[in-house]
């Protein structure tokens, strides 16, 4: 296919790399990562082949939720640097051809944000309806509480104003009232501000919760009383799409002027999809190539709506949480079927949208879309100790320790990541095989400082480690054994393998753009799929078992006029006139194969040997 096509929709075959500025590199020696340190390490990202950098929140914050409790959406946290240093970083990243996106966290603010301080000062405050208030809290379903280890309700009583405010997450993160047009206008100003400073898009936090129906009907008080007696209704499950039920919205003082101002023009709640369409349209006007990466952890039929269905005018890319979870189930079983079934179930997104694939992200490794029995299988295989689990639904571990550091398994999993249909997203440190530190609280276990060298503090900072937000990883996966500088010198290291995967992925647009097909191998442990576009074909084969396998693969529309050339190692496989190819895979083996005419095939070791022999004969 033409490369000019891939440059227009750049996110379709991008390599996205997520990092937290605070834990990446300390540039001034105070124990806190900052933009100065990040800028000095941009070349590492460039050498790896990263094309898009995703920054976790870097805004001013009391830091009670790792930066997701924001007090100013228009500035940089002083601990991390200044706006000037942010702009310098953006300039260097752009010089290296790396786009930058940032977390858009507009579900809520910190309770220390000036808006909320003003809102709680009086029921007549101009910011009162920027948040969600009620005289009587609705009954909660325990499943609706996102952090059950810290919270037991979605409502918190504010003694100063005598009302309850709504918080989907922590009580110190009051939800913004996105039903209020003034709030939506402010969100677009935030988007515009950072786009003017060079951002190419945003990762949208908790998309289904952007607009929530917590409106109270006339009998809400009675329902609350009935709930106390065990007869009432319940809040919707936090993992499902929030409904937008009919009924009058009540903000501020209930059914008075505040309630009318907070509603849409037709008197009802704005639809979350209308809000996303408006946000995407605004971004397209400012920068036609900007993108929205959505955190939408829903079943496939519900998730598809957040692309904008067939129109593709809402979220540009959505994370494939279901595929990720089924991958871990496949690894636990040593069988490809769970992942293959997910890929067969997964719908194609609209033509200008895409899936984002990942091995893990910055949160817990959630397993909420598995059945209880399936989740227990994954727990038993990769997190048997209760301390390794979190919220009874996920793991707070990184991949290498879960796989006992087995390089065959680790390399196979990342080969799988880069070959699956979708845009691969890496979490910092994955490229070198960092582990977790379970001594850190909760999800912080996987947010340990980046490991650059085997020396003091892993090269992250020269400060006393007691000043670090999170402790360094220790032991087998500590910086003495796992770091960038040593792996950069080792041609057989994981870092070099990841660099090769990125390089080959970028050279195989079929994987990102092509129509994919799951192939029948007859081997339960093998996932085989092909991607085709414009007459070009790439195959990807992955063995989930600790034993060698051999099988014959039927390849429709191919014959002995083509050969299969290995892209990750040297080798060429012939195709019979009937379209059959004999394949071998070692234990946890992985192969990428390009189908092409012999005269157009990529070079392999045999070609080099023939060339050298011809030179000797000519001499």
From TrEMBL:
Region Disordered, residue ranges: 218-268
Domain Glycosyl hydrolase family 13 catalytic: 18-469
Biased composition (Basic and acidic residues): 218-242
SMART domains in alphabetical order: Aamy (SM00642)
Its EC number(s): 3.2.1.1, 5.4.99.16
Name the UniProt record assigns to this protein: Maltose alpha-D-glucosyltransferase/alpha-amylase
Molecular function, one GO term: alpha-amylase activity
Organism of origin: Sphaerisporangium siamense
SUPFAM superfamilies in UniProt: (Trans)glycosidases, Glycosyl hydrolase domain
InterPro entries for the chain: GH (IPR017853), GH13_cat_dom (IPR006047), Glyco_hydro_b (IPR013780), O16G_dom_2 (IPR045857), SupH-like_C (IPR054049)
Entry keyword Iron-sulfur: no
UniProt GO BP: carbohydrate metabolic process
Alphabetically ordered keywords of this record: Glycosidase, Hydrolase, Isomerase, Transferase
Top-rank taxon: Bacteria
One protein family per Pfam: Alpha-amylase
């Amino acid at each position: 296919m033409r490369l000019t096509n891939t440059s227009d929709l750049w996110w379709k075959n991008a390599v996205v790399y997520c990092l937290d500025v605070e834990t990446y590199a300390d540039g001034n020696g105070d124990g806190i990562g900052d933009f100065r340190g990040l800028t000095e390490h941009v070349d590492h990202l460039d050498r790896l082949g990263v094309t898009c950098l995703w920054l976790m929140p870097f805004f001013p914050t009391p830091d009670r939720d790792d930066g997701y409790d924001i007090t100013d959406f228009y500035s940089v946290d002083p601990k991390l640097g200044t706006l000037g240093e942010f702009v310098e970083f953006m300039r260097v990243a752009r010089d290296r051809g790396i786009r930058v996106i940032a977390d858009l966290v507009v579900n809520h603010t910190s309770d220390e944000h000036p808006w909320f301080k003003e809102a709680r000062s009086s029921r007549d405050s101009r910011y009162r309806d920027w948040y969600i208030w009620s005289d009587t809290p609705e009954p909660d379903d325990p499943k609706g509480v996102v952090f059950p280890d810290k919270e037991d309700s979605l409502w918190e009583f504010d003694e100063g104003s005598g009302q309850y405010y709504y918080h989907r997450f922590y009580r110190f993160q009051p939800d913004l009232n996105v039903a209020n047009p003034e709030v939506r206008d402010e969100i677009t100003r935030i988007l515009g501000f950072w786009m003017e400073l060079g951002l190419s898009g945003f990762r949208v936090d908790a998309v289904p919760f952007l607009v929530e129906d917590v409106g109270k009907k006339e009998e809400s008080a009675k329902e609350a009383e009935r709930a106390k007696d065990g007869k009432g209704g319940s809040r919707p499950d936090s993992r499902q799409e929030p409904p937008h039920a009919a009924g009058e919205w009540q903000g501020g003082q209930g059914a008075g002027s505040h309630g009318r101002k907070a509603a849409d023009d037709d008197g009802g709640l704005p639809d979350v999809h209308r809000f996303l369409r408006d946000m995407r349209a605004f971004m397209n006007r400012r920068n036609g190539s900007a993108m929205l990466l959505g955190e939408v952890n829903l079943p496939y039929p519900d998730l598809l709506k957040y692309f904008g269905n067939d129109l593709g005018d809402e979220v540009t890319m959505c994370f494939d949480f279901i595929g990720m979870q089924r991958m871990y189930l496949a690894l636990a079983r040593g069988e490809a079927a769970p992942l293959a079934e997910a890929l067969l179930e997964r719908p194609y997104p609209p033509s200008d949208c895409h899936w984002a694939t990942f091995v893990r992200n910055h949160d817990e490794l959630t397993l909420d879309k598995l059945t209880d029995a399936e989740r227990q299988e994954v727990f038993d295989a990769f997190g048997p100790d209760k301390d390794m689990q979190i919220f009874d639904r996920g793991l707070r571990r990184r991949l290498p320790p879960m796989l006992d550091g087995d390089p065959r398994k680790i390399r196979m999993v990342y080969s799988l990541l880069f070959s699956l249909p979708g845009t691969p997203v890496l979490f910092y440190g994955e490229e070198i095989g960092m582990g977790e530190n379970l001594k850190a609280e909760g999800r912080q276990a996987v947010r340990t400082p980046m490991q650059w060298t085997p020396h003091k503090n892993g090269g992250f900072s020269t400060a006393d480690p007691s000043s670090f937000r999170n402790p360094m990883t220790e032991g087998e996966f500590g910086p003495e054994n796992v770091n960038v500088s040593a792996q950069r010198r080792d041609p057989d290291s994981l870092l070099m393998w990841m660099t090769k995967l990125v390089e080959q992925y970028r050279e195989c647009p079929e994987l990102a753009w092509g129509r994919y097909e799951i192939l029948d191998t007859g081997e339960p442990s093998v996932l085989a799929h092909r991607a085709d576009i414009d007459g070009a074909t790439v195959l990807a084969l992955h063995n989930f078992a600790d034993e060698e396998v051999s099988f014959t693969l039927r390849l429709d529309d191919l014959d002995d006029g083509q050969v299969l050339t290995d892209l990750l190692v040297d080798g060429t496989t012939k195709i019979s006139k009937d379209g059959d190819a004999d394949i071998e895979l070692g234990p946890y083996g992985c192969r990428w194969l390009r189908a092409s005419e012999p005269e157009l095939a990529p070079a392999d070791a045999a070609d080099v040997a023939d060339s050298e022999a011809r030179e000797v004969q000519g001499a």
